[in-house]
Amino acid sequence: MRIRIIGLPLLFVSGLVQAQTTGTTSPDEQIKDAVPLPFGHCFSHVPLRTEGQTDPNAPITVTADVLNATKDGKVLYRGDVEVLQGERRFHSDYMELEQQSRDVLAKGNIRLTDGTITVESDTTLTGNLTTKDTELDQARYQLHGDPGRGHARKVTLAGERAEVDLKEASYTTCPPGEEAWQLKASTVSVEQDEVFGEAWNAVLWLGDVPVFYFPYIKFPVKDERQSGFLYPSFDISSSNGADIRLPYYWNIAPNYDATITPRYIEKRGAMAQLEFRYMPTEGHNGVLYGEYLHEDKKLANDPALAGEEWRDDARWLFSWQHSARFDAAGHWRGNIDYTQVAGWDYAYLDDFDPPVGTLVDNQLLQSFQGGYYDRHWQLTTEIRDYQILKPELDTQPFQLMPALVLNSYRGLGDFDIALDSELARFENSDEQAYQATRFHIEPRLIYSLIDQPGLQLKADVGAYYTHYEQDIPTALAPYYLNQWGFDTNTLDTSVDRLLPRMRINGGLVFDRQARWFEQDFTQTLEPQFQYLYVPYENQDNIGLYDSTTMRQDYYSLFSDRRFAGLDRISDANQLTAGFTSRIYDDSGTERLRLALAQTFNFTAPRVKLYPGEQLDKTKQSFLTFEGDLNLDNSWFIHGEAQHDTRNNQLAAGNITLEYNEQGKLAQLGFRHLNEAYFSDSISNELNQVGGTLFWPVAPQWGLIGAYYRDIELHRNIDTLIGLRYDSCCWAVSLVWEQWQKEDKLFNPTSTTQETSIGLRFELKGFSSLGTGSEFEPGTELLPYYRPFNLNN
Asked: What family does this chain come from, according to its entry (predicted)?
């Protein structure tokens, strides 16, 4: 039979759910095991979460085996009583409603759910439809889509105040019967309008052993922010000793907050850290971050620094990151990336590992930029400086003060028209360095001679015009003469450079069907060529402000530049030829890619990066190869090689082999650089080998390891080994790592060994406590990455 009533049990479910389960997610999203568990029972008891919303005014349907009405005004429901309202469901063996007082009593096999939580009791539920107060004895609860569950001797819902109180309550994420940990409290109180719940006399139990007592704690019940202490963190390393942080989160306003972190470093002293986040208006947000250590005990007490004035100085860092969008369409945008440390403090980032700072070749970026960005053109400006963090550098980097850049690309009939231009001012803090104002404009006209499926041919003509006004000091710093060959007679105050440019490139795509290993494949052959012509002009009279030689690889051979930056435009009369071959399986997955290319110079390039450079007169580039293989979605290989055909030797190369499947990862790599390949940056051949491992070694046990070694220097670069035990609801890991750390303060040309040990204990769904970093295959110096370039 069916009748309509106002259902107090459903009001109870609604109140309990809103108070305790806001923001829960699926088990896979909530808990990510570092070591895949060999059994599936961890979440077998967890119901799926359904997000359906129920209208509180929606009709309520009640069904029962027997319905009776008594003379004293009671309505009695017996046998398989079920109350439904949308996603909300209530079940019991017996329920009675006192129509005058509007009291409700339910008994036996009580079960309440709304798709986000299930509450059960084998005893009684009492309540009142007018006050909406409800009590449930001996209750058990299970979150949906989340392993969180527990019980309470009594659950009380104060309907008018929308408050839930639990007496003698517990919480755990462990499966039933495997309670490795529980949090038990004498009283738990949750108000629906509050962000945090409260618990009194809470005890953390590991098995049957109480390990920590909390007289009073607050815990989040909504995905909202509230001020309070965050979990502390601990680290131990050979250079710093014990490192303890206790962050306090300050929720200043909905669009402002701060994290204040007292930090104690055993060998160095007390440090203060402050992070302030702001979002004053829509489209604007940023972070101000600072660290301050009044005195570094390790430096102050080192007798080797007795004569250094800065050894007693404070060590500090300031950083400002800001992103701005000034209009709804996002055309006007700006960005700030600024980080600074004390001028003498080259080792700050290595010693304290701050979470901010953009490093470019041991230099801290300090940049302010903004502009207008449109589909066809962009106008940007930037002020940029760098702080050197390597004391042996003899020159200061040039500052952009500022640069104004205008770029445009637009189609016009069968033609594409491109324009790149820049006006830049380069300054230097060294009084013996040259400085300059540079104007550059580069118009281009691109015409598709042939544009058909499988066949493309383009002509690209243009010109480079650059004007320099250089400020040349009376005497240049010795570095410019000794290292680069510049002198005051070499450089000109005013320079104009005009160079025409012609580029023709094209390619073909052939494909054929093939069958190998009883599978169907498609193989392509993609020949590609480029002819480039730029006449020669001696540019030794121009200083170097932002230019360097580009790294040579397969893609750079098809570029129109030999140098990055605009201070050098290389002459070229060359033909680059290459091909790519790909193999796709019948699902369209790219399994193999092989690419080979070489540049042939009809005239050897004559433009030098700096006057003292000795040019290679060869008329051909290295023969360059790249390849990638995806064998079966588990095995991957990537390789690159540059072969010096004139001397018949390998100039540079690297190869990576990886196995990656179902939580198992193994990667091996080797890289080689010949002494002649980067003669300006290395003095010996570079041969390095290494690998990383992330592997389950037994049920619930996982191993990580990494080892990188410099074969030429006969020393280890970075070594890591770690072990982790993973259960359904808790994990423990131990990680040891040793790496080479640059000694930037004491001896910049040497390195010292840094060692760290990390022990981390995790209660899944509750907290993580311990030392060291997360259980990941990357190392301090070499983070894990995948170099594979396949379209899958």
From this structure: Belongs to the LptD family.
**Count of beta carbons in the 10 Å neighbourhood of residue 542:** 24
Which of 177, 204, 224 is the last residue before a domain boundary? 224
User: What's phi and psi for 694, nearest 5 deg?
Assistant: -145, 100
Confirm whether 780 is domain-assigned. yes
What's the number of domains the chain is made of? 2
3-class SS letters over 412-424:
ECCEEEEEEEEEE
Token pair recorded at residue 338: 């600024």
The per-residue pLDDT for 121 is 92
The two beta strands, 664-673 and 649-661, are: antiparallel
What are the strands, taking DSSP E only, across 453-539? Answer: 455-471, 494-508, 510-516, 519-534
The dihedral through the CA atoms of 560, 565, 567, 568 has a sign that is negative
| CATH at residue 194 | 2.60.450.10
| 134, 156 contact by CB (below 8 A) | yes
Dist CA 175 CA 728 (whole Å): 7
SS3 479: helix
Q: Which long-range contacts does 138-141 make (Cβ < 8 Å, 24+ apart)? A: 141/16, 141/20, 141/117
Question: For residue 758, which of 783, 741, 780 has the smallest C-alpha distance?
Answer: 780
**716 neighbors 691 (Cβ within 8 angstroms):** no
Of the candidates 149, 166, 216, the one whose C-alpha atom is nearest the C-alpha of residue 764 is 149
Between the alpha carbon of residue 660 and those of residues 631, 664, 692, 713, 718, the distances in Å are 11, 6, 11, 31, 22
CA distance 572 to 557: 12
Please state the φ and ψ torsions of residue 553, each to the nearest 5 degrees: -150, -170
Nearest by Cα to 472 from 419, 422, 426: 426
Closest CA to 87 of 55, 119, 124: 55
Of 107, 128, 109, nearest to 120 by C-alpha is 109
d(CA 322, CA 193): 33
The answer to whether residue 42 is domain-embedded is: yes
Residues of the chain falling short of pLDDT 70: 1-41, 51-56, 159-162, 192-193, 195, 220-223, 306-307, 392-394, 676-684, 743-750, 767-774, 792
Closest CA to 14 of 147, 127, 183, 168: 127
Contact 366, 386 (CB under 8 A): yes
Give the pLDDT of residue 569.
97
Residue 632 C-beta-side C-alpha neighbours within 13 Å: 4
CA distance 326 to 372: 10
Which of these, 135, 134, 130, 217, lies nearest to 171 by C-alpha position? 217
Residue 370 within a domain:
no
Q: For residue 655, what are its two tokens? A: 């190869």
Looking up tokens 């060869």 gives: 618
Q: How far is the C-alpha of 434 from the C-alpha of 406, rounded, in Å?
A: 26
- Tokens, residue 600: 């042939």
Question: Considering 172, 205, 224, which residue would you say is the last residue of a domain?
Answer: 224
pLDDT for position 141: 86
Give the per-residue pLDDT at 33: 41
| Size (the chain), residues | 792
| Tokens matching residue 621 | 């580039």
pLDDT at position 322: 98
DSSP class per residue in 303-352: GGGTT-GGGGS-EEEEEEEEEEE-STTS-EEEEEEEEEE-TT-TTHHHHH
Residue 678 has a pLDDT of: 59
Q: From CA 540, how far away is CA 611, in angstroms rounded?
A: 6
* Single-letter amino acid code for the residue at 332: W
For residue 670, what are the CA distances in angstroms to 592, 638, 648, 655?
A: 20, 11, 20, 5
Per-residue confidence (pLDDT) for residue 681, from 0 to 100: 47
Q: 248 and 259 in contact (C-beta within 8 Å)?
A: yes
Q: Omega of the bond prior to 402 within 30 degrees of 0, cis?
A: yes
Best CA proximity match to 137, nearest among 114, 159, 169: 169
Domain containing 51 equals 3-224
Indicate whether 525 belongs to any domain: no
